[in-house]
TrEMBL record, chains A, B:
<comment type="similarity">
    <text>Belongs to the CinA family.</text>
</comment>
<dbReference type="InterPro" id="IPR050101">
    <property type="entry name" value="CinA"/>
</dbReference>
<dbReference type="InterPro" id="IPR041424">
    <property type="entry name" value="CinA_KH"/>
</dbReference>
<protein>
    <recommendedName>
        <fullName>CinA-like protein</fullName>
    </recommendedName>
</protein>
<dbReference type="InterPro" id="IPR036425">
    <property type="entry name" value="MoaB/Mog-like_dom_sf"/>
</dbReference>
<dbReference type="Pfam" id="PF00994">
    <property type="entry name" value="MoCF_biosynth"/>
</dbReference>
<dbReference type="InterPro" id="IPR001453">
    <property type="entry name" value="MoaB/Mog_dom"/>
</dbReference>
<dbReference type="InterPro" id="IPR036653">
    <property type="entry name" value="CinA-like_C"/>
</dbReference>
<dbReference type="Pfam" id="PF02464">
    <property type="entry name" value="CinA"/>
</dbReference>
<feature type="domain" description="MoaB/Mog">
    <location>
        <begin position="7"/>
        <end position="173"/>
    </location>
</feature>
<dbReference type="InterPro" id="IPR008136">
    <property type="entry name" value="CinA_C"/>
</dbReference>
<dbReference type="Pfam" id="PF18146">
    <property type="entry name" value="CinA_KH"/>
</dbReference>
<dbReference type="InterPro" id="IPR008135">
    <property type="entry name" value="Competence-induced_CinA"/>
</dbReference>
Amino acid sequence: MKLVKAELLTIGDEILYGQIVDTNSQWMSAELDKIGIKTIRKTSIGDTEEEILQAVSEAESRADIILITGGLGPTNDDLTKPCLARYFGSEMVLNEEALAAITELFERRGRTLNERNRGQAFLPHNCTMVPNEVGTAPGMRFDKNGKVFFSMPGVPYEMKRMMENYVLPYLKATFQMPVILHQLVRTVGIPESILADRIQAWEEALPTHIKLAYLPSLNQVKLRLTAMGTSKEDLEKDIQKQLDSLFPLIGEYIFGTDEEHLEEKIGQLLLKHHKTIAFAESCTGGLVSHTITRVAGASAYYRGSIIPYHNELKINQLGVQKATLEKYGAVSEATVHEMANRVRERMGADIGIATSGIAGPSGGTPEKPVGLVWIAYADGKQTLTRELRLGTDRQQNIQLTTTQVLNLIRQTLSGND
Amino acid sequence: MKLVKAELLTIGDEILYGQIVDTNSQWMSAELDKIGIKTIRKTSIGDTEEEILQAVSEAESRADIILITGGLGPTNDDLTKPCLARYFGSEMVLNEEALAAITELFERRGRTLNERNRGQAFLPHNCTMVPNEVGTAPGMRFDKNGKVFFSMPGVPYEMKRMMENYVLPYLKATFQMPVILHQLVRTVGIPESILADRIQAWEEALPTHIKLAYLPSLNQVKLRLTAMGTSKEDLEKDIQKQLDSLFPLIGEYIFGTDEEHLEEKIGQLLLKHHKTIAFAESCTGGLVSHTITRVAGASAYYRGSIIPYHNELKINQLGVQKATLEKYGAVSEATVHEMANRVRERMGADIGIATSGIAGPSGGTPEKPVGLVWIAYADGKQTLTRELRLGTDRQQNIQLTTTQVLNLIRQTLSGND
């Protein structure tokens, strides 16, 4: 089967000046890969007419699909739309649908439309408008000799919405791709290198039409199996066969096998066990609560949190004993033990969670260095505590502690299955 | 003065599959920008001979400097070296200096050299070897008709060491570059289009050697002034002159003129006014607290937070009157008014902040649609409230509300200057 080829153009001086990392092209190529489209080239250019025109024509000469991001804003340095209009010999016309969408967005935000925003509703007459559900710049689709061009905003969340709701479905419906199946296996709490050792024999025995990729992030490693073929059913069987032999090797570290995130998994476990939860966050400063409340419907199992950043509040807002703090200090097993139990009682939750640590970069002592963190889980029957020894990077310590807390909740609730 | 132009080629299938974000090209272009070299294009291609040869020749046709990373490893899928040898019509010869370096590196690591690694010491006869101080793959420099090509490893720390110790010094010594200065101006709370209207006349009056760019993100817009010339002192004067005329136009929206973030600015304002702060977060679920505590040293002004996600806790943990909740509901001006004042008292802070809203995607009513949010600021003397009408995207609503809250704090504290 003929390979469907795509090229990505990311437009913006800020990319060429090195002021931002171009994460759009990475995300887009990963999404294209999932549906069997091969990205053959990524090009980043500045907001310059000749550069844009040249790059588009070069991409057209090589690829079936050209995806362009950036340069659609309302300001003078945004040149993508006029350049594409010139490239495709277009007249600019007012697109009523686009104008209505922009107007509606503005009314919802209680703002009034100005000429610049109104100008964003003017589009080349020979393009198809691609709705922007979260921003003012509409996207555009051009068709030429069986090749398709999409122009999208450079703002990542606007681009992603557009890709997910319009571009990817359109490409799937328009081009004939080989069947490609991806299977994610999400692990937490095991380092990539140790994971790789554990599954080495399994990895080496993979059939040639199934590829494995390690996608590591902070404290989590995603394994991605990619199977390519012609029959969906066969590929699904092939992948299942591999999963069956993989799980016995690393099952205890696996929390999901699809797009679900750790916080969603925890939501499901809490609902399943009819449990509610509350947090007492010190060193994590709210990140655990934020992560849990990212999930729509979290109010069904999340009661609330206390962030007693100042020690005084650990006593008078949370009810930790003054003696405990004085004897063991805020960053101690005894303190998180009390914090978890007190927040559970105060918030009327089944499960109470606590974090306390030295996030850094400074504030450590020889006995309690930066990166020392205590976390606790209390459910009325038992109280579990864990000591973490992390690094000196503040943001990383906050992140890692949050993941460890979520994993402690997952393990404990899964154990109750 | 003639602009010195560079193009970057990053080579590797893992980039095209979207399995890694290409951070090398961002770092390289930022370093080039610092010494006055303009990156005109970045290209990422796979480990394919024809792709590599085509991309190199295209880059040569446009740029004075071509920097290539990736594809120098010892395995069969690393094609950059043979491709460059073919491109420059080279014979492969053993480079004694490179062999000595590799051997020394292996001895230092207590490993023995194998044939693959020994092969890495073979280089094209017409290139200049660029030492790799932290890896086994030597870099290469080719010179052709006054244009220079550097080939470097894709491993970021190997590439960076090579750039800092050899490539950048060589380019500085070889090319005559103009001076380039960048000045960031960070604004919050004003949409890009309205900002552009306000400063239109100023923008149109900018001298030709100073360029303006709008860098929008969620609820914030960065303005970037880029000045090019021959004297750093003159350019600094020119930029200052423009800032002096810009501030009167949009001063109230500007919170920084460098790399500083909004939460850092707020930390500085709180320290300056010797004020402490506490948060009662409902719809933001902890993101405001997390953002504030991302800043090292936040404990000097941040007391803590209560996240009364469940209404019951708004009453018994925060002290909001039952009657208020029953009469006006949780998402109302009256409720956030009380929340802000109560959290201020309970946490013993000078300033209390509250958020309550319908983050969505569901849970709205005709009177209180998804995206309706109330925020409040209380400092004992005054209580300020704001109504926000946001969209239907949960993550975005949580983000936007957080930025609005931070900006309300900034504005109020700046007003006290």
